[in-house]
UniProtKB/TrEMBL annotation:
It comes from Streptomyces paludis. GO terms for biological process: negative regulation of DNA-templated transcription. The keyword Transcription applies. The lineage of its organism: Bacteria, Bacillati, Actinomycetota, Actinomycetes, Kitasatosporales. InterPro entries: Bact_HTH_transcr_reg, Chorismate_lyase_/UTRA_dom_sf, Tscrpt_reg_HTH_GntR, UTRA, WH-like_DNA-bd_sf, WH_DNA-bd_sf. Keywords: DNA-binding, Transcription, Transcription regulation. The keyword Cell membrane does not apply. Pfam families: GntR, UTRA. GO terms for molecular function: DNA binding; DNA-binding transcription factor activity. PROSITE patterns: HTH_GNTR. Residues 1-21 are annotated as: Disordered. Residues 31-99 form the HTH gntR-type domain. This is GntR family transcriptional regulator.
């Protein structure tokens, strides 16, 4: 049974993987033992199809299986716990974690930063770039401006517990976005700033979510491998008059994101 039901199924070490065994630490490698062990444990979890809540071997068993010291095991598990890959409970053991979050994909007309506020963990937002750029053909179509027109672009990285979770690119018409070029944008919602400080009201949005892989730019921003799975949310927001005032693209790490969909029975049958 899964951990959320209050119990977990124990999983012995060395029973999974394509070869039916456990890969060994490469003692000739320059990569620290704990970093190798982290990778091996992740691979073992994936190879055996373990689910959140499944129990993992204890520290002593991992020492024996991988022939490493307890210090190496503790460091590897500490970092995996910080990354959300495992969950350690005092007196009970180590379990497969679930680092994914479903926040940021809801139907509320708020920014991604506000979506994750109030939840467990420390949330941060860092600005990587902001400035005036020429609208590409796609940006021009979405914002209903001429191709090549000046628009404001803002790129940010959202973090949860110090781990990059989403890389966002926002384009706004020059008159809408220009006030954002000279104010502090760390750890705030662009929606909130524009509405509260500048009276720009977002009335509705058209959104889509799709699976993709991280290109070099996205991988660098999210500190993940190029080609890693990402969930991409694209959105165009409109004001009360129907004018498009924001084009948003959010690249969310696939290993830390989940899309929840609530289905309601329609009275129309």
């Amino acid at each position: 049974m899964r951990g959320k039901t209050g119990s977990a199924r124990p999983v012995a070490a060395g029973t999974g993987g394509a070869s039916g065994g456990v890969s060994a630490i490469d003692r000739r490698s320059d990569i620290p033992f704990y970093a190798q062990l982290k990778r091996l444990l992740r691979e073992d979890i994936a190879a055996r199809g373990l689910e959140p809540g499944d129990r993992l071997p204890g520290d002593h068993e991992l020492c024996d299986t991988y022939q490493v010291s307890r210090t190496v095991v503790r460091q590897a598990l500490l970092e995996l716990e910080h990354e959300g890959a495992v969950r350690r409970e005092k007196g009970r053991g180590t379990f497969v974690g679930d680092p994914r979050t479903s926040h940021g994909f809801g139907g509320a007309l708020v920014g991604t930063f506000e979506d994750i506020q109030g939840n467990a963990g420390e949330q941060r937002s860092r600005t990587l770039f902001r400035g005036v750029v020429a609208a590409t053909a796609q940006v021009a179509r979405d914002l209903a401006v001429p191709e090549g027109a000046d628009v404001v672009e803002i790129r940010r990285v959202r973090e949860v517990d110090g781990v990059p979770w989403a890389f966002t690119r926002t384009f706004l018409p020059l008159d809408v976005g220009q006030p954002l070029l000279d104010i502090e944008l760390e750890d705030v919602s662009l929606f909130g700033v524009l509405e509260r400080r500048f009276g720009i009201r977002f009335e509705r949005a058209r959104r889509s979510v799709e699976a993709d892989v991280a290109n070099e730019t996205v991988a660098t921003a999210l500190d993940c491998a190029q080609g890693a799975a990402v969930l991409v949310m694209r959105s165009v927001s409109f004001d009360r008059a129907g004018r498009p005032i924001e084009r948003f693209t959010g690249f969310h790490r696939g290993d830390r994101s989940r899309l929840n969909v609530e289905v309601v029975h329609s009275a129309d049958g």
